[in-house]
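Sequence in, structure out.
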Amino acid sequence: LLGAPEARKLVLLRGALGALNNWIFFFAITQIPLGDANAILFTGPIFTALYSCLFMGDRFSVMEVVATVLSITGVVLVARPPL
């Protein structure tokens, strides 16, 4: 039902974190403009790539570093945080 017995705790943790992510997103759109919340939400793949480097030892190519920097710059430009 929930995968292999040794992975069930991780499956439940992933489900709980996914539910928490949804709750935080819906709370965020009540506090900040919808466009900003969406821009922040779409940074998920960027952070997944960064965490894979930090925790799993993956290596970034030069193009991936450039793409990550440009992506974060784009999010900052869309969200326009106050200075």
